[in-house]
Design a protein that fits this description.
Elements lengths: L5 H27 L3 E2 L2 E3 L45 E5 L35 E5 L9 H8 L3 E6 L1 H14 L5 E3 L2 E7 L4 E8 L4 E7 L4 E4 L2 E7 L3 H4 L4 E4 L9 H4 L2 E4 L2 E3 L4 H19 L6 E5 L36 H9 L5 E4 L2 H5 L29 H19 L1
Parallel strand pairs: 5-9, 5-12, 11-13, 12-15, 15-16
Antiparallel strand pairs: 1-7, 2-6, 3-4, 7-8, 8-9, 10-11, 13-14
The protein binds 2-acetamido-2-deoxy-beta-D-glucopyranose (7 copies).
The site of one 2-acetamido-2-deoxy-beta-D-glucopyranose has 4 residues, from loops.
Subcellular location: Golgi apparatus membrane
Protein name: Trichome birefringence
Main location: Golgi
C-alpha cells in the first residue's frame, strides 16, 4: 500500500495560507477568544445493549486499571464475556445507527471532510458500522456521553486526522434533534508555530472537547523539529481528563522530502530516518507523559496510524481512490505499517497506562471512505485526498471504540 504524508502538507500549506490571511483577525482573537454560538439540537436515545469488550493497554506490567487485561494475558477474569473490539468486520447497518448523522448536516465538519456537500453522491460508505467478532460496540449517544463527560475535558491531540476524529465526535454528540443544546466553539491558531486549537464547550452539561493541533507532539521551531522537547502546547492539555493522542503521518518522509530538520539539543541531524526520528520523539513524549500526567485523573489514549489508500500513483502523481465504493474484503498485508511497531514498543515501556486505540487494521479495509476529489474547493482537482476520511464515516467508529473503552473502564471502577 502506498503511503504519502505529502497530502497532509498540501492541507498544511492551505492552512498556512489561511493563517497568513487570518493572522490579523486571529491576533486580536487570541486574548478575547471569539465565540461562535452554534445552537444545536439534541435528544436522548434508547439505551443500547451492553457490549462485551476488551480494552487494551499495551503495558504488560501492573497498572492502576488492574481489571483491564493487558497484552500478556488477554483472558484475565472479567464479570462479562469479553472480545477484542479491534478484531471484526464492517457490516451494513440496519439503518438504526447509520449514517451516524445526516450527511451534509453537521456544521462542525470542515469543507474538506464534508464529502456530501462537496458532491459525493454514493452514500454506501456512510452505512457501514464496525462489528467486533463476538460482541457489539456500545452505541454512542449524547445522553450517555454527556453524563460521562460532565465536568470533564476531553482533548484530541495530534495532526489533521485528530481533527477528523474531533469533528466526528462533535457531530455524534449533536446529532439528535429533540432538545436544543448550546455549543460554544473557540478557535485559535498560530500557523508559524504549526499550532492550532479548537475548543467546543457544552455549557448545559459542563464539559469541553478540544482539538489541539501538534502533528509532531514535540516542539517545532520553523523548519526545525526539536526531538527532545515537547511542544509548548502540551502545557495546555496536560490537565485534561481524557487525552487521545495521535502522531504518525508527519514522520513518514525523509527530511529531504519536506524540508524539516531534526534537532536534539543544539545538534542538527541531517540523515535521520523517519523511524528513528519518530522513536526519539516518542521517548520525549513518553517521558513527559510519565512525569506530567496524573494517571489517577487523566486517562491517556493513543490512536494508532490511520491508513491511506492511494492506488496508481502517489498523491501528486495521479494516485487516486475516487470511484472506490466498496471496502476491501480481504486485507493482503495485515498491519504492516513501518511506524506501528515503534509506537507499540514505546507504549509498552511506559509506566503510565496508555490505552491503545488500535484502529489501523479496521480502517485499512475502508478504501471507499476517503474524500478523494470531494474535498471542498480544491487547489488542484487532480490531487486526491485518500488519507483523511469523509464524515459521516470511519472516525465515527473510532469514537464508538473510544466510547466503549471509556464506558467499560468506568463500570469497572
Ligand atoms: C504487581 O502486582 C502483583 C500482584 O498484584 C504484586 O505482587 C506486585 O508487587 C506488583 N508489582 C508492582 C511493581 O507494583
Ligand atoms: C491469564 O489469566 C487467567 C485468569 O487470571 C489465568 O487463569 C491464566 O492462566 C492466565 N494466562 C496466562 C498466560 O498467564
Ligand atoms: C491491533 O488490531 C489488529 C486487528 O485486530 C491485530 O491484528 C493487532 O494484533 C492489534 N495490535 C495490538 C498491539 O493489539
Ligand atoms: C463544571 O465542571 C468544573 C470542572 O469539573 C467544575 O469545577 C464546576 O464546578 C462545574 N460547574 C458546574 C456548574 O457544575
Ligand atoms: C492526581 O489526581 C487525583 C484525583 O484528581 C488527586 O487526588 C491527586 O492529588 C493527584 N495527584 C497529584 C500528584 O497531583
Ligand atoms: C495539478 O497537478 C498535476 C500533478 O502534480 C499537474 O500535472 C497539473 O499541472 C496541475 N494542474 C494545475 C491546474 O495546477
Ligand atoms: C451501494 O450498495 C448497494 C447494495 O450493496 C449496491 O447495489 C450499489 O451498487 C452500491 N452503490 C454504489 C455506487 O456502489
Amino acid at each position: 500500500m502506498e503511503f504519502s504524508k505529502a497530502i497532509f502538507q498540501v492541507f498544511d500549506l492551505k492552512t498556512m495560507i489561511y493563517g497568513v490571511i487570518l493572522l490579523f483577525i486571529v491576533i486580536d482573537v487570541f486574548s478575547s477568544t471569539s465565540i461562535t454560538k452554534d445552537p444545536v439540537t439534541i435528544q436522548s436515545n434508547a439505551i443500547s445493549s451492553p457490549p462485551h469488550s476488551l480494552a487494551i493497554i499495551l503495558k504488560p506490567s501492573n497498572t492502576s486499571f488492574s481489571s483491564i487485561p493487558n497484552l500478556k494475558n488477554t483472558t484475565s477474569v472479567r464479570k462479562r464475556p469479553i472480545c477484542d473490539i479491534f478484531q471484526g468486520r464492517w457490516v451494513v447497518d440496519d439503518g438504526r445507527s447509520r449514517p451516524s448523522y445526516p450527511p451534509g448536516k453537521c456544521s462542525f465538519i470542515d469543507f474538506n471532510f464534508d464529502c456530501f456537500k462537496s458532491g459525493r453522491v454514493d452514500l454506501n460508505y456512510t452505512m457501514l458500522r464496525w462489528k467486533p467478532n463476538g460482541c457489539r460496540l456500545r452505541r454512542l449517544t449524547r445522553r450517555k456521553m454527556a453524563r460521562f463527560l460532565r465536568g470533564k475535558r476531553l482533548a484530541f491531540v495530534g495532526d489533521s486526522l485528530s481533527k477528523n476524529e474531533y469533528q466526528s465526535f462533535l457531530c455524534l454528540l449533536t446529532n439528535d434533534a429533540a432538545k436544543k443544546k448550546k455549543v460554544l466553539v473557540v478557535k485559535k491558531s498560530n500557523v508559524f508555530q504549526n499550532f492550532g486549537f479548537e475548543s467546543a464547550n457544552f455549557p448545559d452539561d459542563n464539559f469541553t472537547v478540544d482539538f489541539i493541533r501538534t502533528p509532531f507532539l514535540v516542539q517545532k521551531f520553523g523548519g526545525k523539529v526539536q526531538l527532545d522537547m515537547m511542544a509548548k502546547v502540551s502545557e495546555d492539555y496536560k490537565n485534561a481528563d481524557i487525552i487521545v493522542f495521535n502522531s504518525a503521518h508527519w514522520w513518514r518522509h525523509r527530511i529531504t522530502n519536506h524540508g524539516y530538520i531534526y534537532q536534539i539539543g543544539k545538534h542538527i541531524y541531517k540523515h535521520l530516518s523517519p523511524k528513528t526520528a519518530f522513536k526519539k520523539s516518542l521517548r520525549t513524549w513518553s517521558k513527559w507523559v510519565d512525569a506530567n500526567i496524573n494517571a489517577t485523573r487523566t486517562q491517556v489514549f493513543f490512536r494508532s496510524f490511520s491508513p491511506v489508500h492511494y492506488s496508481g500513483g502517489q498523491w501528486n502523481s495521479g494516485g487516486n481512490c475516487r470511484g472506490e465504493n466498496f471496502p476491501i474484503t480481504k486485507l493482503k498485508e495485515r498491519g504492516k505499517f513501518e511506524l506501528q511497531e515503534t509506537l507499540e514498543t514505546a507504549l509498552r515501556k511506559m509506566s503510565t497506562p496508555v490505552r491503545y486505540l488500535n484502529v489501523t487494521t479496521m480502517s485499512n479495509y475502508r478504501k471507499d471512505a476517503h474524500p478523494s476529489i470531494f474535498r471542498g474547493k480544491t487547489v488542484n482537482e487532480t490531487i486526491q485526498d485518500c488519507g483523511h476520511w469523509c464524515l459521516p464515516g470511519v472516525p465515527d467508529s473510532w469514537n464508538e471504540l473510544l466510547f466503549t473503552m471509556l464506558m467499560d473502564h468506568g463500570q469497572q471502577k
